[in-house]
Structures are given as C-alpha cells and as structure tokens.
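Q: Sequence in, structure out?
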Amino acid sequence: MQNTRNKYSWLGIWCLGVLLYTACASPVAPTGGPKDERAPQLVLKESTPNLQTNFKERIIKLTFDEWVKLERANQQVVISPPLEYRPEITIRGKSVRIKLDEQEVLKSNTTYSINFGTAVKDITEGNAPENLKFVFSTGDAIDSLSVRGKVIDAKTGEGVKEVLVMLYDNLADTVVQKERPYYFARTNKTGTFTIDYVRADTFKVFALQDANLNYLYDRNTEAIGFPDDFLVLDTAQQAPLSITLFTPDQPLAITETKYRDYGKLRIGFNQIPDSIELEYPSYFKRTSMELDKDSIILFYDKKIIDSAKWEIVVKTADRIIDTIDFRLPNSIDFTKSDKKLTRKDIGRQNVIDVAPNENPVLGFTTPIWAIDTSKITIVEDSTTVALPFRLNAQSNTRMDYTLESNWKEGKKYSVQILPNALEDIYGLKNDTFEYQFKIKKKKDYGILKIQLDSLEAEQQYLVQLLYGDKKEGAVKIVEGDTLKELVYTQLLPGRYTLEIVEDKDRNRRWSSGNYAQKSQPERYSRNDLPEVRKNWEVETKVSWKKE
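A: Exactly. Output:
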C-alpha cells in the first residue's frame, strides 16, 4: 500500500527536489563588477554522458561550471515518458544529482527525455541554460522524431503558456481520463511546444490545463483541447499542430446568496443568468427582479403575512436550477426613516451628451414603483416652455427609464424632477433631481461600412461591434449570404473591433467545445477596424477567417 501511495502521490512530477545547502558550504554571490549574463555550462567530463543507449545507470549527475540552484522545478522540469516513482533529486554546489527510485522499472526499448526548462539557474543573476535536456534510451537506438505546435485560446486566439501537451499510444476515448501520457511537454510563454525524441507511431493528442497536477482530465472546469484526428508520426516531415484550448460550458448554477438586509436578495451565478425565472409565493405586495451582471437581485417590500421563510424556485424554461429557503430578516418600514430614493451616478459631466435619434436614460438605485409626471419638467435651452415627454421603463427593468421627446440636434435640455415625483419599491421618494443633456449633431459622429466576405451561406453568424469593451448596438444575425454589408451610423470617433462567431448550434451565443461529444468550440474571430473619424464614412472589408 505504501508503494502505491508513493506511485500516485507525485504523479510524474519528479522535480520537486531537495535543496541541500549546508551552512558551511553556502555560496555567496560576489559583489561589484559587470553584470553576469552568462548561463551555467555543463562540464561534460564530470557529468553523466548524454544520449546514451542501453542505459542501465540509476544515478544521473549533471555538473556545471558554476554554482547553481533550482527554481519552480515542479512546473519547469518534465520527464517523458513519466516515471512511476519520484526520483531523489539533490543539488550541491555545482552539481544536480538525480537518483532513480529503487522500485522504478524503466520501459524497455524506450527513449526518455528530461527537459529542465528554466529550473536550473546560476545563483548570482538567475541565468538559465537554454534548452537543457538529458536524453537516454533503454534500447539500441535513440528515437529521433519530434512533435511541434502551438496551443491557442479559443476566444482570444493568443498562445497559452504552461499547458500540458500529451501524447498517448492508447487510442481509447477515455485514455485522458484514466491514464498518464506516454509523452508530454509544457507550452512556453508564447504557447508553443516541442516534444523531441518520439518514436514513430500513431498517437492521441490532448492539451490540458491540469489544475490539480495529476495528468488526468478529471474536472470539467479544466481547459482542454484536442485535434479531431489521430497524429500519425512517421519519418516524413511533421506539420506543426495547432490545438484550440477551451473550457467546456458549465451548467448554469448558483454560486452565492446574500440576504443579510431586509428588502433585497442577491443570487449570484456562474454565468450571466439572462434565462432565469424565479417562482415564489406572493408574500409581498411589491417585488422586482433585476439583472446585475452575473447576479439577480430580488427587491421586495410590504410583507402581508407572517412567515419565517420564503421559498424561491430558481429555474429556466426547461429545468429547475435550485430551491432557496430564504430566511427573512426582520422587516423594516423604510418610509419611517430619513432615507430618500437615490439615482445612479451620472459621472462628473455637467452636460450629458446624447446621440441624435436617441433618448437620454435616467437610472435609479432601486426599482421605481410610481411616477407623478406632473412633477417633472423639461425645457429647451433657456426657454421656459415645458416640453411634452414620455418616461418609459427599459425592457425587463424598473431601474432604468428612457426619456422620450421631440429632441433637436445641437440643442441643450434641462430636466427637473421635483420632490415626491418618484416612489421606489420601498415607498421612498426623491428630493429634487436635475439633469442637463445635449443632443449632439450627426456631423459629430462617423459612419462605418463593413463588407463581410468568405462566409458560408448555410451557416449563421453573430456579429458584434465593440468600442473597447463596450458593445455598440445589438448583435447582428447574418446568414444565407457569402458576402454581407453591415452599416453602423452615429459612431463616436475612435477605434472599433468586430467580433464574429460561427453560431453552429444557433443558440445566439458563443458555445464552447465538449470532449465527450467530440465537439470543438465555435469558431470566433476579433478584427481590428480602421479608425472612425468625425463626419466621415469609412469603408473596410473583413474576411471570415477559416482554419
């Protein structure tokens, strides 16, 4: 039993190491002189010979021409194929000594490669030897084939560092969940990897962000990537692999509930809960459900029955997510306090800019329950004639309202909301609110015309224009065409990007991959666009990037 525990506790991470610096032999970095930029070099005459065949030694010694140390060895040093037991690793002065466990049985006719990464460094400036490896074979020859490639993030398209890339000679679908790899490497800071000294064979390939460092895909929160086909490795030149890394979509779930204060229940989720419904008994005269990023806030007031608990069913259209037994805090009559209804911060602008053909939005920190429009006045510039208007709640909220009227370009407007014009869900009313805004002119904005080409007519695409991280307008659905023109008007001057998703499952959002279903993440591209200038029409072309 003890041997089994040793076998799996370290799971191939043999490089934790034991630093054996003694007090009487502790090296001291020299002071003064030019900076040391030279990496430690192997002293071949004092080191175990590299690239040996018919290897039978149990101790490997690497001696350098200066004092060295180990750093982040558990992440940096990898041995492929992985050993079953942790070797004893010591470092003393200028030498690294690796002693294989006495129970370790090396595979016959197998080439082993020990890649040190940047684990070995000099003690003065931390210089690491480049591409430090120790390779040996238990057979008559050293395997000489290589696998190279890059792991890229499914959404950003950027390389991902410190990802395991693993090769299996067992081609079963479940191998990544049950066995450690035969060969593996870690990606560097740019996401590229190289696995050298590989034999000719057919392999199953995976990329894995191994959160628990056990070389197994055993958590659906671990990011994974896999080519659609086996890797057939022979003596021919091998094209670099490109592996897309993704985290599988997680089932919608509750992550937290907060209800310390009466009148507000916050339910947090692991993703934006835009498809959530709440089902509950009508214990209260006033309730309002508001979406706030990855949370839902349930406001409530005016309790009309005595109950210690409030049971709330959280569900979607097709399943129940959870049931919350909500223990009610002591009720509060907010109207007997000195609290007032408050509005959302409108920033430090004295005058809020509003695009032509759009309406200003008035936001409040609690849901509005009643509005007395007779106490709201809107005037243009310095005139005293009140303008007709409509104040309408935005879709699915009682906290944000659009102010609609016959606005004119280039004109300034003043809005005065007198005391008690608004009443929120708690019965609180407002003090005087004043707003100043200006309807800008069309010439203050730019127009962007985008030609999308290389589309597939049978596919559906989601197209979103972004100004920084801010979404400009709604997602556009494009299908049935190989070439499509999109026109965006009233754009602020600046740099924009265009996101495109190939919406294969037609659920109108980006979907990740799923290894169990052998599905790759939906293809995605983010495209930089020419700068938009004031009173200018910019035309550009964006080609859908194909693999």
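The longest helix spans residues 2-9.
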